[in-house]
Each structure stands twice: as C-alpha cells, then as structure tokens.
Amino acid sequence: MADLIASLRAHAPFDEMEPAALEFLARHLSLGYHPRGALVLGPESGAVERLYIVKEGAVRGSGGAADVVLGPGECFPLGALAGRRATVYNYRAERDSFCWELAGERFRELLDLSARWRQFSTEYLAQLVGRSQRALRAEAAEGALDGAGMLAPLKSVLRRAPVSCGEDFTLGEAIKRMHAERVGSIVVVNADGSPAGIFTTVDVLESVAAGASLEAPIASRMTPRPVMLEEEATLAEAALSMARHGFRHIVVTRDGRLAGVVSERDLFALQRLGLRRTAGRIRGASRLEQLVEAAGDIRSLAGQLLAQGVAAEALTAMISALNDALSQRVIHLASAKRGLDGAWCWLALGSEGRMEQTLVTDQDNALIMDGERRAFLAFADQVNRDLHACGFPLCKGDIMARNPRWCLTPQEWRRVFDGWIRNNDPAALLHAAIFFDFRPLAGDARLAGVLRDAVLAQSKGNRTFCRAMAQAALETRPPLGLLSDFSADELDLKLLGARPFVDAARVLALAAGAPETGTAGRLRAAGEAVAVDAFHYVQTLRLRSGGNRVRVAELNAIDRRVLKEAFRQAALLQERLRMDFGL
pTM of the predicted model, to two decimals? Predict the structure, then answer.
C-alpha cells in the first residue's frame, strides 16, 4: 500500500489530502486495464458507478465541443459521479492504459472523510487554479522582488511587539488574545522564547469547522515549525518564502527568539505605496519624458504585484487603471497644446476597453468628434505617437484615432455601427468586433453613452446579427487537439486561450443588451462562473509569461491540467453559442 500511496502523492490533489483519507482511498482502489481504443465509459453506460484515476497511459474524453486527453493522476468523471448521473462524454483509451477505480459508495464516503477531497471534487477547476497560482507566484517572485525597498531588512517593518502565548494556552484563550490585540496571528512559544508554532485566523476557521473544543490546547491546533527568518533577512526573502510555501505569515526571530511577525498584508502595503507613488507621478507629469518613466514604473509594479500573488482580475484591473491614468494625461497634454474647438470623446477599444490589459498591449482607440476634422486628426496623431513613446505600440491594423476611418462625428459613428449590425458577413464582423467593447477614456463621456444606447438598442433581440457574431466567434477554436499529447511547441495564449472567452462573452452581452464591456462581468451576467475562473487562469499565464506565447514543454504538470480544463471550458462556452443560435 505504501507504493500506491506514494504514486498517488505524485499528483494533485492527492499530495494535499489528509493521511487517513489517502490511506482509505488506497485501501479501496482496484486496478483496471483498458486496451487502446476501448471504451472505458460513455453516456450509454447509465448512472456512473465508479471513479477512474489514470495510472498509466492516456484516456480521451470527447463529446460535443470538448475533446481532451487525460494523463496520469487525472480523474474522471467527477461531476457525473457526484451528481449520480450518466456522463455526457465518451471516455476511450488513447493507448493501452491502466486506471485505478473507486466504487461510487466509497467515493461518497471519501467526500465525508476528507474536506480537501470534497472541495476538490466540487470545485475542480478552482482548486487546480489555486494550486497553479501558488506555483506561478513562487516563480514570478524569483525575478520581481528586487525593486527599491524590497531589499530592506525585516526589522524595518516590525511596528509592534509580537503577540504570543505559551503552549499551555487553550484554544479559547488564544482566540481571545488575538481578538483583543486585533491581530491575524499569534505565535506559540517555548519556555525559552523560541517559536514552536503559529496560529492564524485561517486556523480559527478550520478549528470551528472541525468542531474543536475551546478547551483544547493551542498546541493541538497550531501549525508547528512555522517558517522563520532572522530579522536581518530582506523583505524580498520573506515574500519568496511566502510564495514558495503558500503561507501568509513569516515569523521573524532575533538570535532564534521571537522578534515579530510579517504578514502578506505588510508586504502588499509596500506595493500599495508604490502604486500611489506611480499614480502621483502620472498626475503631476507636465512633460512626455516624465510619462515615459511612469510607464516603466507601471510595468515594474505589475511584476511585483504578480509575485505577491495578486489575482489576475485584480491585477489586470490595476494595470488598466494606471494605463488609463497615463493615457488620460497624454491626451490632456496634447489637447491643452492644441485648443480643440468642439466636443469630443476619446474611446478605448479592445482589451483596454474591456480593462483587461496585460504587460504587453498595443493601441486600439478611436475618437468621436464634433468639429473641424483636420484639427482632430492632428490631435489624435500626436496622442498616438506619444502613447507609442510610452511603450504602447502602434496598432498594426491601424485601428487608431489618427486613422480618418476611426475619427468620426456622432452621426457617422451611428452609421458605421448600423452597417456592422446589418452586415451578416462573418469576416467583417470579426474585424469590427473590437469596436463593440468601446469605453470612454477622455473628453465628453456623454457622447459614448449616447452611442452605446443606440448600439445596444439595435443588437438586443436582433437574432440575425447575434447569430452572425456567434458564427464569427466560433472561428477560433480552443487548441485541445494540440494539448492531447503536449507535442505543440508554443501556444498563442491571446489568440487561442483568451479570445474564445472574450468573443463568446461579447456575443452573450450584445444579445442580452447588457452594457458591461469586461469579459468576466459579461460571463457572470450570463451565468458562466466556471468560465470566469478558466479565463482568469489564461490571463494569469499571459501575465506570467510577459507576453502572449508560452512553450508547452515548460509548463509543469499542474499547469498542463489546468490549461486543458480551461480550454475545455472555452469549448463548452462555444457549444452554448451553437445551441443558443442554432449553429
């Protein structure tokens, strides 16, 4: 049994399961052989009666838009087994394969026995994303925490005496002290003052959930042997330790005795100072050269926040907000020099319009203007060139406000959108889709509001238009086939990973007449919460890679599993488009 447990521990989530639960699982597993091409399980098999865990070989799951190959350590069919229903997929041995099998009755006993297994089974994608996020966090931290301030010693941020208790304290006494001191952790110390363990608010919640008695000794609920660093260690070392171990607190010692505690919140506060400082530099800039420097600060700060473990949705929102501020300052300086005559509104399009910018993004913008066109074109050209100097490349497709095609009066914009909405040509709609994510960035926002109302009034309920948009959205297929055996060299995460989610979300929003422009908001409004997790995982990989391409061979086992599941969710989202619009 020891060999079987060791084999299971090589894969998630078994490496995090409680020892007793893992032993229970190993004791009740049987081994099945499935020759190449054999059907392991399908819809005709009826209600699923057992869980399969691939031991050797590969099993392909296909059905509808989904087609994914499962390798060693991967489980199926979790959803159907938990729901006591038939699977909707055909699972067939891709090559000679062995699978561990667990009877459905034992599977349900394991759900009661193991909180970690229960959480994994009910939140499969979210759990894998969480595991991957910890790995990404540690990797990103290696190269991102050498900025100003992160080389300071830990003792420089210790603002108060540490809150501690002895090993003889009860659970209730420790919680009362934490509450009285308003802290999120308490260090349990030995008689000589050296740390023996740490007890945090997370441990409080787990203790309550486990029904622990308040009279139980704190030593029975603490995390023993906490991560410790001497007070002369740097803040960067603390951040790296947190990232590698997945902890939120580092115990700081002086000659081996407790000196204080540094929390993830303490380190993140330093980055908030950097955020405020960068925003202040942007607001106070009076020359383009100052904004060029601020743009570099934005990219550096984003890398540091990625290393701190900031989630993709919050990080892209932060990047977009700072880029907005920088772009608005560029626009303000240019407009002040030219003294424009007439109302105008600068529109952000594409990823900027959706507030989903990553570290590498080009320009996509347009202009609503009501005045002398030549003056506005000269203004737009100046802004586009200044943004280019700040690190936002000129759009290769020339979708920029300096292009006369995209510098129009309100009436002309109405006619342009009217034409797109009446046009059933998928190629034209694919080109124009970027404009449907427009957002006012500077100038008179009311001009954008009037245009949006007109666009949504026409798109809502216009089944012909929405069907054409859905057809265009299906042109880009998630690369599940490329990931079948991981033989692909590189993947374009923007084109093949993010775009299927972005395009599908846009169609669903336009069909519903929803004003939301962000992909996550659109998906949530459409009831696609799992797709949101998958989309954010792809965005995290894009942020981590510093671009849009990733080498498949460099992904670890967890990343591969999550990426396959993310692509499967994209395929399921596209299947919804097919069903909703009869494609």
Answer: 0.61
